């Protein structure tokens, strides 16, 4: 986490908001995280999703229960961003899904409108119901 968030324009990378960011759907290579890391995998197809090192918070709530906030994820596709009012106020969020089995996993915060929530911008929520700890680490 960096201090003094100066909210640079366009930091989200994809230039959020464009509803038709048609990316080529053909992607056959799956990303793998370093085996030494504790990783979370898709519970449905076992594709790697995130490293434990990228975990920011476990105290989020998804539609199906607990959800984790990650700094970065892999093998995850992103739908169009849309504005939603969440428990913590208005956000622009995009649904995210497993690129290997296409299961919806959670969402990405594209934009937060309240300054206290800015830390979530560009971060990913994955619901616990869709993750499994690779190799059962604890
Ligand atoms: Zn999957």
From TrEMBL:
Domain of life: Eukaryota
Residue span, Yippee domain: 38-135
Keywords: Metal-binding, Zinc
Keyword Zinc: yes
Gene Ontology molecular function: metal ion binding
PROSITE patterns: YIPPEE
Presence of keyword Metal-binding: yes
Spans annotated as Disordered: 1-21
Entries under Pfam families matching the protein: Yippee-Mis18
Family in the record: Belongs to the yippee family.
Protein name per Swiss-Prot or TrEMBL: Protein yippee-like
Lineage: Eukaryota, Metazoa, Ecdysozoa, Arthropoda, Hexapoda
């Amino acid at each position: 986490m960096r201090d003094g968030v100066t909210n640079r324009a366009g930091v989200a990378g994809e230039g959020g908001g464009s509803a038709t960011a048609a990316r080529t759907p053909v992607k056959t290579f799956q990303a793998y995280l370093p085996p030494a890391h504790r990783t979370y995998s898709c519970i449905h197809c076992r594709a790697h999703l995130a490293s434990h090192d990228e975990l920011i918070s476990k105290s989020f709530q998804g539609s199906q229960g607990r959800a984790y906030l990650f700094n970065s994820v892999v093998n995850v596709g992103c739908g169009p961003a849309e504005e939603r009012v969440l428990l913590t106020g208005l956000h622009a969020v995009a649904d995210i899904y497993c690129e290997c089995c296409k299961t919806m996993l959670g969402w990405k915060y594209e934009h937060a409108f309240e300054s206290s929530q800015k830390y979530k911008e560009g971060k990913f929520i994955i619901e616990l119901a869709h993750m499994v700890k690779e190799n059962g680490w604890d």
